[in-house]
């Protein structure tokens, strides 16, 4: 097939790009060219900032595709631009939405595609819902061939999956664990979470590409494995060969602390126990099965980051913030004794 990805080199999309290239499809990556190194196969590059719509339209002139995958659309205005660029130019348009848009707090912990999209805590999630509504309107009213995919917490070898981290990413938390410092885990760490390795996510996504039964449908793609946050952080410590010094702080307390905004990412997402029912995507992609367990995926990621200093971004501000939070919580505990 002839496939174009808007982006194509991010955490979710890189594994899909590599998989489809290996399968022999003709791939086009439309991006700014900053992360295309290391790719091989039948891949062509359209180097541009898609926000420069006039230039992008000229570069697309005369091209048509079996599928266009949108990985970097966050607000409806970006999807309106995409429709202007790709309406009538593709047989399928796959949009990456987000499972964080599902109802929070959930009325039931098992999530299906029929679970309502209601997240009053996170603007990011509400914008994803608005994007879905816009695209499904185009499907109903104009026949635009939309498929919507909702990932949950998908990760790759470059960043360890966490609940609480700073703007610099996961490394500072890994470093705290490695150095034997107390590490903040939201809540009591027993809520259930689902992390999905991008190589597993790519299997299901690839099965939806060019599948006519996927048009006009919504799917989430996640692992079937549910683990607690205590287990996730424990696997990181295990991979580092050290003991975890967990320090549990209520999610609402973290959200109320100044310095970082955890209302959306915790109250609106990670503090809620969720288990995903993937039967809908498996009905279309029967071979889809996640094989990278949370324990194995975290081990691989930790080893990769340790071996690649370019992904070890120190974040002294977040490190100091953790110490202040722990000190403040200890002070509150003493005050209530």
Automatic annotation (TrEMBL):
It holds the Pfam family Epimerase. It comes from the Bacteria. Residues 3-219 form the NAD-dependent epimerase/dehydratase domain. Signal peptide: none annotated. PANTHER family: DTDP-D-GLUCOSE 4,6-DEHYDRATASE-RELATED. Belongs to the NAD(P)-dependent epimerase/dehydratase family. This is NAD dependent epimerase/dehydratase family protein.
């Amino acid at each position: 097939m002839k496939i174009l990805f808007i982006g194509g080199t991010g955490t979710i999309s890189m594994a899909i790009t590599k998989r489809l290239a290996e399968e022999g499809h003709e791939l086009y990556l439309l991006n700014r060219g900053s992360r295309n190194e290391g790719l091989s196969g039948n891949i062509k590059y359209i180097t541009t900032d898609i926000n420069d719509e006039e230039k992008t339209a000229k570069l697309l002139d005369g091209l048509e595709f079996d599928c266009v995958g949108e990985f970097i659309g966050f607000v409806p205005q970006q999807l309106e631009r995409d429709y202007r660029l790709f309406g009538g130019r593709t047989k399928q348009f796959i949009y990456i939405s987000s499972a964080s848009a599902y109802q929070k707090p959930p009325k039931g912990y098992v999530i299906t595609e029929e679970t309502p999209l209601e997240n009053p805590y996170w603007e990011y999630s509400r914008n994803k819902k608005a994007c879905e509504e816009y695209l499904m309107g185009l499907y109903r009213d104009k026949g635009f061939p939309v498929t919507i995919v909702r990932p949950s917490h998908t990760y790759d070898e470059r960043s360890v999956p966490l609940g609480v981290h700073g703007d610099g990413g996961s490394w500072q938390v890994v470093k705290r664990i490695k150095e034997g410092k107390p590490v903040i885990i939201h809540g009591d760490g027993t809520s259930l979470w689902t992390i999905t390795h991008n190589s597993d996510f790519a299997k299901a996504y690839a099965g939806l590409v060019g599948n006519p039964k996927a048009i006009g449908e919504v799917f989430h793609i996640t692992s079937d494995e549910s683990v607690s946050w205590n287990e996730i952080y424990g696997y990181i410590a295990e991979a580092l060969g050290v003991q975890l010094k967990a320090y549990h702080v209520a999610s609402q307390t973290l959200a109320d602390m100044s310095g970082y905004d955890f209302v959306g990412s915790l109250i609106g997402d990670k503090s809620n126990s969720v288990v995903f029912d993937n039967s809908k995507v498996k009905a279309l992609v029967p071979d889809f099965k996640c094989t990278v367990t949370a324990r194995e995926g975290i081990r691989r990621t930790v080893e990769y980051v340790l071996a690649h200093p370019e992904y070890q971004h120190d974040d002294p501000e977040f490190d100091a913030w953790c110490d202040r939070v722990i000190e403040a919580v200890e002070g509150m505990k003493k005050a209530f004794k």
